[in-house]
Amino acid sequence: MNDKPDLTEPRLPFAATQNWPSGAWADQIATLLASVGDIALMIDAGGHIVDIAGAPSSLRGLQAQVGRRWIDTVTPDSRLKIEDMLDGQSAGRWRQVTQLGDGGDFPVRYLVLPLGADGQRIAIGRDERAGAVLQQRLLQVQQSLERDYLAMRQAEARYRLLFDMTAEPMLILEADSRRIREANAAAAALLGDSQLAGQALVDQLEPGDREPAIAFLGAVAAGVDMAPIRVRLADGAAVWLAGRVYRQAGTGYLLVRLGVAEAAASSAADGFAHAVAAMPDAFVIADRSLAIVAANPAMVEIVQAASEEQLRSRPLGDVLGRPGIDLDLIMAQLGEHGVARNVATIVRGLLGGRDEVEVSAARIGPDRYGFTLRVVARRLRDLPPAERGMPRSVEQLTELIGRMPLKDIVRESTDLIERQCIEAALAYTSNNRASAAEILGLSRQSLYSKLHRHGLVGSEQLDD
After folding, report:
1. What range(s) does the PAS domain occupy (predicted)?
2. Which CATH superfamily is domain 17-127 in?
């Protein structure tokens, strides 16, 4: 049922115009008043409804109220307003009341005007249901916005608490000016200043490390995934500087982490750690159960992780090798020889990527293993036979194990043996094709076909 009144539908006229004041224009006036609003009530001096006119969708059974007191046709909370309008205290003012009807109560805004000298009045009403529906929708939208705002404020409070309580020094910089926007308690303690907001981060570093830090922050702000760099603070303490860029409300910011370097580490150890962090090949350390203990930035990038922390404690088998095959082979070689070299396998990214890699591994402690991963270009094996380079030895065929299905390796083996036999027959017959075909048990046409397939015609000028 559509409760929205139709402002264009015809109005029902008053049915008892004989009760109206006499005059030549009584009928015309009655028609005019009935058309002004959605509802029109003729009220006598005693406050009784004498006649009703208006839109059928707005009347909603009010015709049955004729003869009753108007004040008895509204809800109790609206009676005082009716009394004010009948007493003339609300003359010329629109008052909203809740009108009772067949389908339940509904809001109506009335304007009461005197009609004649005998105390009769005309009440012109406007159906407010459409406005009430819009108001209710507006209220629901407002409540939804307030709930979303409260949820956002609660999430902001949680993340701010996490930012402030983390033991790792963290800074938020403005991407354009490189000035500190916010700093947690650990960063304030490390830099020895509780009022870091507004200061430039490079001013907290030794002069010799400022230019590398500016270049590093500029690259991070441009979206380049940079490996951490080692810098010294103004007091001489060494830290690792790492950063990520993010955007908020159209403005770029840098989330910078200051990793405190071990004070007792020697310069050689620092140089080695820096080299591992900066090397283009992926490097990862795993424990006895092959859970990842540490990984350099190249490893984080190749497995599509957000940070090294996301990889820690994750099983190495989740990202490296075909399940149940490659890691078992590598660990078997480590157990027998202590090292594994150039094992062809794959690395699987956390976001679904897949790359072919060569893995070398070594035991670096009683319960630690080190792995290096180098991405290799995919080898083209499925080109047409005339353009394809074939394996030349059994050793080359064995290198295909793990890289190709067995049926493809068998096909390669058959082609290798066939080619070697043809080459041996041609050498034995001094490149005489007819004799070579005879000792091979082939027709000359079949031999010519195989020569073309193996690419022996273009490189060999053979005579019959």
Report:
1. 157-222, 270-339
2. PAS domain (3.30.450.20)
pLDDT for 286: 92
| Per-residue pLDDT at 158 exceeds 80 | yes
DSSP 376: -
- 17-127 against 279-375: fold identical: yes
279-375: which CATH architecture? 2-Layer Sandwich (3.30)
Confidence of residue 284 (pLDDT cuts 50, 70, 90): very high
**Cβ neighbours of residue 270 closer than 8 Å, sequence gap 6 or more:** 230, 238, 261
**Whole-model pTM?**
0.35
Nearest to 238 by CA among 223, 249, 228: 228
316, 286 contact by CB (below 8 A): yes
CATH of 386-459, one of 3.40.50, 3.30.870, 1.10.10, 1.10.287: 1.10.10
More confident residue, 62 or 95: 95
Cβ atoms of residues 251 and 177 within 8 Å: no
Note the CATH number of domain 166-264.
Answer: 3.30.450.20
Render pLDDT for 189-248 as a digit per residue (tens, 0 to 9): 888 887 888 888 888 899 888 898 899 998 888 888 888 888 888 888 888 888 888 888
Sheet with 368-375, edge to edge strand ranges: 292-295, 282-287, 368-375, 354-365, 339-348
What single string gives the DSSP state of each residue in 225-285?
A: -PPPEEEEBTTS-EEEEEEEEEEETTEEEEEEEEEEPPTT--HHHHHHHHHHHH-SSEEEE
What residue spans define the domains of the chain? Answer: 17-127, 166-264, 279-375, 386-459
145 three-class SS: helix
pLDDT of residue 288: 87
| 172: pLDDT strictly greater than 70 | yes
Task: Output b/e per residue, 130-155; b: 16+ Cβ within 10 A.
Answer: eeeeeeeeeeeeeeeeeeeeeeeeee
